[in-house]
């Protein structure tokens, strides 16, 4: 060190000539366990209706197909969940214009599930039994019973092949008013399908391994885990980067203990401690050790 905050590199033989001990360049460290590890995907969305309880699941897989993972360390693949608060309500837009004669004529409106603050939320957070009609028959004053199909609901899966459903009603108009009938009243015509298969995007899923141990035993350290994208058993790159789980995070442990001053410490003869005191180097870690006797005089007395 030339002056505080100014260091200069020199050839290593100068340090050897001064009998300075060379710090080690390598040391053993504890890394995450090698071999098979459990990998977990994200939890599914809670299917519970408002105020109800249900279960969410996640995929849990072993990173090796040929070598089994430790069954006692397997993470859980299911847990309980609670549905959203019940103050969510259906809201509707105004009815649109009629598209034609009764039987073919329909009027439509938008139906949303909204939270109390006005935010639109997924429809499964409102009661399906109370959902208002989004499509309504219209046309002539009187209309014989006929089948009325509502819009398809969202596919029941976020990826891969699933099922979608829609509400089918037997309805008509009598004396200018909408009326529901038993399905037998519409038996003369073929009932539309109320269920169909659907396919969303391919099932790319993020999987994570367990967190490693913290890099520190006290203070603030870092822990890490592997994050991989799979499609089935194949490692791919198709996962949404916006939903990628974090692979590194800090871990805060108990504060590190502070060493009490060594009352019997001595200055190193090879170090110019008078100069270190003169240029105020006692705050530097090296000089606080090498000149501990001289620097001790600068420390405030402990109570």
Number of domains: 3
Which shape, going by the Cα principal axes?
A: elongated
Order of helices and strands: HEEEEEEEEEEEEEEEEEEEHHH
Question: How many DSSP helices?
Answer: 4
Q: How far is the N terminus from the C terminus? A: 34 Å
Q: Could you describe the 3D structure shown?
A:
The protein folds into 3 domains: 38-83 and 203-246, no CATH class; 89-199, no CATH class; 271-298, no CATH class. Helix content is 8%, strand content 27%. The chain has 4 helices and 19 strands. The protein has a 3-stranded antiparallel sheet with strand order 5-7-8, with no helix packed on it. Strand 17 and strand 18 form a beta hairpin. The radius of gyration is 36 Å and the shape is elongated. The model has no long low-confidence stretch (mean pLDDT 83). This is ADAMTS-like protein 2. Keywords: Repeat, Secreted, Signal. Pfam families: PLAC, TSP1_ADAMTS. Residues 261-299 form the PLAC domain.
Outline:
By secondary structure, the protein is mainly β. It contains 4 helices and 19 strands.
Topology summary:
Layout (H helix, E strand, L loop, with lengths): L11 H6 L20 E3 L12 E5 L2 E3 L15 E5 L6 E4 L13 E3 L2 E4 L5 E2 L13 E3 L5 E7 L11 E5 L2 E7 L2 E4 L14 E5 L4 E5 L11 E5 L2 E5 L2 E2 L12 E5 L20 H6 L6 H6 L1 H5 L7
Antiparallel strand pairs: 1-3, 2-4, 5-7, 6-9, 7-8, 10-12, 11-14, 12-13, 15-17, 16-19, 17-18
């Amino acid at each position: 060190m030339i002056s505080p905050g100014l260091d200069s590199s020199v050839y290593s033989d100068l340090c050897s000539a001064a009998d300075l001990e060379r710090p080690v360049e390598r040391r053993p460290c504890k890394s995450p366990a090698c071999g098979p590890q459990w990998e977990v995907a994200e939890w599914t969305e809670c299917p519970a209706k408002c105020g109800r309880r249900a279960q969410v699941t996640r995929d849990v897989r072993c990173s090796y197909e040929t070598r089994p993972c430790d069954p006692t360390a397997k993470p859980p693949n299911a847990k309980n969940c609670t549905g959203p608060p019940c103050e969510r309500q259906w809201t509707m837009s105004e009815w649109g214009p009629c598209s034609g004669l009764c039987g073919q004529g329909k009027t439509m409106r938008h139906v949303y599930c909204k939270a109390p603050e006005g935010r639109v939320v997924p429809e499964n957070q409102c009661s399906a039994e109370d959902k208002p009609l989004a499509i309504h028959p219209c046309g002539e004053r009187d209309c014989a019973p006929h089948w009325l199909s509502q819009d398809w609901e969202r596919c029941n899966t976020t990826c891969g092949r699933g099922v979608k459903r829609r509400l089918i009603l037997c309805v008509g108009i009598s004396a200018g008013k909408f009326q529901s009938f038993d399905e037998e009243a519409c038996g003369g015509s073929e009932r539309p399908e109320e269920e169909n298969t659907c396919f969303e995007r391919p099932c790319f899923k993020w999987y994570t391994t367990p967190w490693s141990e913290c890099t520190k035993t006290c203070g603030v350290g870092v822990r890490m885990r592997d994050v991989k994208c799979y499609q089935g058993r194949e490692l791919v790159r198709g996962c949404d980067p916006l939903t990628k789980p974090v692979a590194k995070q800090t871990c805060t442990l108990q504060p590190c203990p502070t060493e009490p001053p060594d009352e019997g410490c001595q200055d190193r003869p090879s170090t110019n401690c008078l100069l270190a005191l003169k240029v105020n180097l006692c705050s530097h870690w090296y000089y606080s050790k090498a000149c501990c006797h001289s620097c001790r005089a600068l420390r405030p007395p402990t109570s």
